Amino acid sequence: MKILNQLNEDLVRDLSNQKNEPGFILDKRLNALKEFNKLSMPNFRYGLNIKLNYDFDLDNLEINDTQKINLSTNKKIIFSRFEDLKDNEILKEYFMKLINNENKFLALNSAFFSNGILIYVPKNTKLKDSLTLSVLQNSSTLIKHLLIVLDKNSELNFIDDLSSDNKEKSYSGKIVEIFVKENAKLNYINLQNLSLFTYNFNFKKAKLYSNSTLNLYDLNFGSKLTYSDTIVDLDGENSRFEHYGAFVSNEIQQFDLGLSAVHNKPYTYSNMLTKGALNDNSKAIYRGLIKISKDAHNSNGYQKEDTILLSNKAESDSIPKLEIDNNDVRCTHGASISQIDNDKLFYLMSRGLDEKEAKMELINGFFDNILRKINFDNEKIKQLIQDKVK
Fold this sequence. Notes:
Blueprint: E1 2-4, H1 9-18, H2 23-38, E2 45-46, E3 50-51, E4 62-64, E5 78-81, H3 89-94, H4 104-112, E6 115-121, E7 131-137, E8 141-150, E9 155-164, E10 170-180, E11 185-193, E12 198-208, E13 213-220, E14 225-234, E15 240-249, E16 254-263, E17 269-278, E18 283-292, E19 300-309, E20 315-324, E21 330-339, H5 342-350, H6 355-371, H7 378-389
Parallel strand pairs: 6-8, 7-9, 8-10, 9-11, 10-12, 11-13, 12-14, 13-15, 14-16, 15-17, 16-18, 17-19, 18-20, 19-21
Antiparallel strand pairs: 1-4, 2-3, 5-6
Helix pairs in contact: 1-2, 2-4, 5-6
C-alpha cells in the first residue's frame, strides 16, 4: 500500500483497516489526528539566537507501510506487531497511556505510525541475551511505535538499531513508551545512524515504578535533522534513571536533543551525562531538565552536557534547567562547550602521532567514559565516530 500527501481521516482509517487493528487503536489514531490539525508547526527557536534551520515540507510527506520490520521470536516474552496481537490485554492497558500529543510531529507519529511493536517481559523473567530490533529504513517514510512493558522483577537488555542509506529526502518517526514495573530493570541502547537525507523525529516517554531502574544509552550519529525528546517520570520510591548520550555530526547535520527527569516520589535518583562532537557546519542544541516535585524529598538529580567543536563553523547551544519544589534534595547541573586542546594535540604529535591520529585519540578520550558504560559493540561506535571526524 502506498498513499500520498493526504494527511486526513480517510488516510488514518485506511491505514488502520489495512492492518485490521482493533477499534481502540483506531480511536487513538483519530484523536492524535485532531491534535495534529490543531497544532502549529514548531519554529525550533529557543531564545533570541538559538535556532535550527528547518526545511521539511509536511505537505509533501508520503505515508506508506510498504516496509515490514522482521522480528525475532522468543518464547519467554512477547515481541510482536500490534496487528498480530488482536485482543491483547497488555496492549489495551498501556498503549498511548504516556503520550499527550502536545507536539505536532508527536501527533503525526501517533496518527500515522506504520509499524507498532509490543515488547512485554512477564513477571520474574530475566533474559540473559540482548533483544535486538535492527531496522534499515529503505522507504521514504517509516514511523514506528514501540511499547515496552517490563513486569515486576523482570530484566531486559534491548538494542534499538536504526539506519538507512536513502539518497532522497525521507522521514523517520518513532514513539517509544516504556513501563518499568516494581523491581524491574531495563537497559535500552538506542543507536541511530540514518542517512544525511533523513529527517528524524523521535519521542521517548518512560514511567518508573518503585525500586525500578532504567539505563538509557542514546547514541545519535546520522540524519540531516534529529529532533528528540526523552521524558522519564520517576513515579515510584527508590526508582533510578541513568542516561548516557553521545552525538557526533558533520557536514550540515542538526541535532535538537531534549532530556527530562521528573522526580515525583521520594528517594528517586537520576544521572544524565551527554557528550557531543560537532564538525564542519553542523549544529546541536541540548535541552535538559531535572524537575523535583514537592513530594520527592531525599531525591538526587544530576545532569551534565559537554560538547567539543571540531570546526570554526560548528555551533552548539546548551539549555540546562532545574525546577525544584522541595528543599530536602540534592540537584546539580552543568554544561561546557570547548575546542580541541592545542597543548594536548602538540604533546601527542611530539610522541610520534600525526595530527589526524592525535586528534582522533583526543576525541576517543573525550567519549571514553560514555563508551565504558555501554555493553555494546564499542568498536562499531568508535568507527562511527571516526567516520564523522574525518
